[in-house]
C-alpha cells in the first residue's frame, strides 16, 4: 500500500525547506505563514498522513498568490506527554499560526491546552469523546476537530442496526475508548428487548474461544469495535470456527475498514458491513492521491496507494489544510495575517491576536473536501457529515450500498433488483438442508414397491417436497430433506427458555429452511424469519357427521307430543259433549222448523251429537261450519274452542317443517360458541402447536372459556398430532370435537366421509417457509413463492395432494343447501297414509249407506233386493241424470197393484214432506262455515 522511505528522510524535509526560506527569503514575494504538525511514530499509516499534510500544503501554495504556508513537523510518542508539551512550545516559539495533530487522546489534550492558552488554532483529526461533565466552551475555544462528532457517529451506527432489524447482537471491543463510541447503540434497546452481549478481547491473539462462546449462544449479529490491525485476524479465526457463514453478519465500526485487504475472505458467505467517511471514487481523492505519488516520485521515494485504500486520517489532514488555508485567505483579504513568536514560560504571557478570529471563521465556514461536506458546531465539532455504507462483495471487494447523514438517515443507493440478482447468483449450485416433519399431506413416506430401495429425498413425497422442489428449480439450488428429531413444529418453553422442534433446528444452524404446515406466529417470528405465506388458513372444528335417523311415516306428528295429542282428543270430545248438552238446555237453540207458519206448535233442535262433533272438528281444522249456536253459553264454548284451535293450529304449522327437517339430523353443535356453552362434548387441540397458542393467548371471552375447559379436562383432551385428534373424533361417537387448522381438516374430510367441518374459521393466518433470522435468501425464496402463486402452481399442488393423491376425492359430494331443507316422502308419507285410510273408510261407509238404501227401497216398493240393487246401481252409474224421482216403478204389476203402490207412495211422500225441511237443513250445515242459518223445503 505504501512505499519505503528512501533518500533524504521525510522527517527532515520541512526543516530544510524552512531553512532555505530563512536564508533566501521569499523570492516570489509571498508572505510566509508557518504551520506546525505533530505526528506519532506509530501507527504505520502516520507516514501516509504526513504525506497527505505535506502535499496538501504544497497544493495550497501553488494556488495562493499572497502567502505561503510553511510546514514545521515534530514527532512524539503517543504516551510521552512531557515531550509533547516541549514540542508544542518549540513550535510556538517558531511562530506557527496553527498546530495540526497529534492523533492520541492523551497528547492531543496537552497540545489543546497550550494552544488555548496562547490562542493558537488547534486542528485535530481523531475521535474525541465528550467529557462526562459536558463540554466547556472556554476550554474548547481554540480546537477544531474534523473527525465526525462522537455522538453523531454513534447515532449513525445505531440507525444502521435499526435498519438491519437486529433484535440482539454481540459487541466485541478491545478498549474502553472503543466502548464509549457505542453509547448510542447501547441505548437503543429497551428493558423488554433482547439483551446485548458485550465481550472484550485482550492482547491474546487467539480469539477462537471467544468466538465459540458466541456461536454456542446462537448469536449471529456481531459488532466489531477493535483496532483495524486486529480485524482481519479475528475474521480469519471466525472462519475457522464456522462463524463466517451466511447467517452471521458483522458491522465494523472503524472508518478505516476499507483499507484492509479482505481478499482471502471475499468469498465468505457472511455479510460484512463497514462505514467510510469518503467517496473513494470522487475526483478530489483521485487528484490528491496523484499528488502524493508524483511528489514522492520526484523525491525518489516510491509510494503507491489506491484511492480505495486511503486512510481516513490522511484524508482529514488534506481537508484540514484546505479549510485552514481558506480561512487565512478570507481573513487576510481584510487584514494582513502576521505570525508571532510566542513563549510558553514567559511571565508576561502573550497571545496571538489572530488565532481566535481564525477559529471562529472556520466554525461558521462550510467547506467540501475529500471527506465530503465539512460543517462545525459552536464547539468546533464536525456535527454534519456523510458516511458511505459499504459491504464486502465477491467481485469488487467493498462496494457502496447506501449513504447516511444526520438529516436523512440511511439511504440505499442500490436497487432492489440488484440486491435480488446478487442473492440469486449466490444461490447457484448451493445445497440447502431443508428440515420438515411427517404429516399428511405435507410430507409422507413414499410407499415402496417390491424390491425398491429408497434413499435421500426419494424417501418422501407430499406437498412440502413438491413446493421446495418448484422453488429450487426457479432459483437453481439443490436441497436435502431432513426430519426434525422430535417431530414438533416449534414452541418456546418459558421455564427452560428454549425452543423445540423445527425452530430449534434452525436456531442451531442444522438446517437452512423449514418447510411444512408451520404457522407464522408472532412468537416464532421473534426467533426465525418467514417467507410470504404460501397458504392461508384458519382454525376450525372437526366433528363427526350427524347420524341420520330412520324415516318415520308419521313424522308430521312430531311437532306435538303424544300427551298433547291425547289432551287434544279429550278436549275435542269434551267440548263436543258440552256443546250438545248446553244446546239442549238453552232455549235459544230450539227453533221453529217452519218459520213461515207462526202457529206451529212444535220446535226443533238441530244440535244433535253429530252436528256438535262436526262443529268442533271444523273449528280445529280451520274451516268452521255453516251452522252456529244461538245461546250465549254455547257461543262462549264455541268461541273458546275456536281460540284454542287457532293457537294449536298456528303452533303446529310453524313447527312442522322444522321438526320434519331436524328429525333427519342429530346436530348438537354448529359453532365454537356452541362448544363453549356446553360441557357434555369435550374438545381439544394438538399439544404445543399454534392452535393451542391461539387459545392460550386469546383475549376473547369465548376462547378464554374454551381454553380453561381444555386445560382442566380430565382425561386430557390434548393430542400429540392431528392424526390422533382425528382418531379421537371418530371413536368419540360425537362426544369429542377437535380444533385444528382448516387445511389439515379439509384433507381429513376428503378421506373420512363420516367427519365434517363445523362452523367457520376462528382466525386467519398463513403457512410460511422458516429460515434463520436475517437469512439473505428470504427475499429470493419469497419471490419464488409469489411466482408459483401467480402461475397457479400452488393451487395445482393443493388440488393434487388434497383431492387426488392418497385417497382424495372420496367425499366430494356437496349437498345442496336448498335440498337439505326439503322433506322427502319418507318424512311426510304418514299424511298420505292417513288420507288413504280416511278415503277407504269413507268408501266403505258409502257402500254400507248404498246397501241400506237398497234394502229400504226393496221394502217400500215391495220388490226383491236384487231388483232394487240393480235399479239403484243403474241410476247411480247414469251420470247424465241430474235429478232423482221420489218414487220409481220397479215392476209391471197390475193396475190395482200399481194404484196400491202409488197410494202408498203418495202416503210416504206426505210423510217425507214433513221432515224434509229438517233434513235439508242438516245437510246444508255440513257445507260452509261462512254461511249461517237454515235451508227450508219450498214445495
UniProtKB/TrEMBL annotation:
CDD domains linked: PBP1_iGluR_Kainate, PBP2_iGluR_Kainate
Domain named Ionotropic glutamate receptor L-glutamate and glycine-binding: residues: 441-508
Disulfide bonds listed in the record: 753-811
GO biological process, one term: synaptic transmission, glutamatergic
Site (Interaction with the cone snail toxin Con-ikot-ikot): 787
Keyword set includes Disulfide bond: yes
Residues reported to bind L-glutamate: 519, 524, 690-691, 741
GO CC term, one of those recorded: ionotropic glutamate receptor complex
Single GO term (MF): glutamate-gated receptor activity
Protein name: Glutamate receptor 1
Provenance organism: Anopheles gambiae
